[in-house]
Amino acid sequence: MAYFAIIDTETTDTVKHSDNNAHPETSLVYDFGYIIADENEIVASRSFIISETFCNTRLMSSAYYAEKLPQYYAGMGKYWEVVSFLDAWRAFKDDCKKYNVRTIWAYNVSFDEIALNNTIRTYSNGFVQWFKPFKMQYRDIWSEAGYTICNTKKYVKWALSHDFITASGNPSTSAETVYRYMLGNAEYVECHTALEDCFIEYDILKKAKRQHKKTPKSKKQGWRAAAKIKKEMM
User: Fold this and answer.
1) Where are the domains of the chain?
2) Pairing relation of β-strands 27-37 and 4-13?
3) Which residues contact 217 (CB under 8 A, 6 or more apart)?
4) What is the three-class DSSP state of 50?
5) CATH architecture observed for domain 4-140
6) Please, is 174 exposed, middle or buried when counting C-beta atoms within 10 Å of its C-beta (0-12, 13-18, 19+)?
7) What is the DSSP string of 96-122?
8) For a tag site, which of 36, 159, 176, 231 has the least CB within 10 Å?
9) Which of 22, 209, 214, 12 is nearest to 108 (CA)?
10) Average pLDDT value for residue range 27-42
């Protein structure tokens, strides 16, 4: 059975950047979630609060989703395990070994990859350099969805009709927008907690895979197909 992992992170930045954007190379993970599944079923799911980051008041006061902190406090022990980052890393490795996982998927996976690497280097004092287990590959759900679900005039027209447009003027192909399209509900709001977002991304990945289209293995390219269609329509 070919199982894969879907991961998601919520992070806080250790540097106040002038562009007000999140920078994974200076970010530390405070919420790490993952599921292990195939296209038919989920066989494992875990959700971790990273104690080193979450318990650092200075860091968490600037967290992008700081207003969600009460939700995290209320769910500790029920929805989230509070562990060290190294313990979360070991649990992930053990589950990947147990289910023979070879690919790790995430929406805009480059962000999660860089943030996880920075976090493990920081909290292991440089002893561990890379988060992913040896020989595993990162794959981008954003690119997969961009060349399947978003690669139609129907999707582009829908996105434009609801004003789901990026700062660059392209149709939005974010996980939240794509999931809104799939649900037929333009008002849907993503939860932005790691494990809950994994379930959304799992649904997106399943839909993309079931279209049986050849897609590139590139990262961060999920915007291109929809942007091209928009340009051709103008």
Assistant:
1) 4-140, 141-233
2) antiparallel
3) 139, 143
4) strand
5) 2-Layer Sandwich (3.30)
6) middle
7) HHHTT--EEEETTHHHHHHHHHHHHHH
8) 231
9) 22
10) 96
Cβ atoms of residues 125 and 140 within 8 Å: no
The sheet with strand 42-50 has its strands ordered as: 81-83, 42-50, 27-37, 4-13, 103-106, 137-140
The burial of 13, by beta-carbon neighbours within 10 Å (0-12 exposed, 13-18 middle, 19 or more buried), is given as: buried
Q: How many CB atoms lie within 10 A of CB 46?
A: 19
Q: Of how many residues is the chain composed?
A: 234
Q: Could you read off the pLDDT of 197-217 as tens digits, one per residue?
A: 999 999 999 999 998 887 877
Tens-place pLDDT, residues 58-68 = 888 765 556 77
Which tokens go with 150?
A: 């978003």
Q: Which two tokens stand for residue 210?
A: 């079931």
**CB-side exposure of 97: number of CA atoms within 13 Å?**
8
Q: Rounded to the nearest 5°, which phi and psi values hold at 96?
A: -65, -40
pLDDT tens readout for residues 62-111: 655 567 777 777 777 667 788 999 999 999 999 999 999 999 999 999 99
Please choose, from the candidates 111, 109, 176, the residue with its C-alpha nearest in 3D space to the C-alpha of residue 143. Answer: 109
Point out which residues pair with 10 in neighbouring strands: 31
Q: Write out the two tokens for 94.
A: 């053990």
Whole-angstrom distance, CA of residue 11 vs CA of residue 205: 23
Taking only the tens place, the pLDDT of each residue in 162-192 is 999 999 999 999 999 999 999 999 999 888 7
Supply 100's token pair: 């023979």
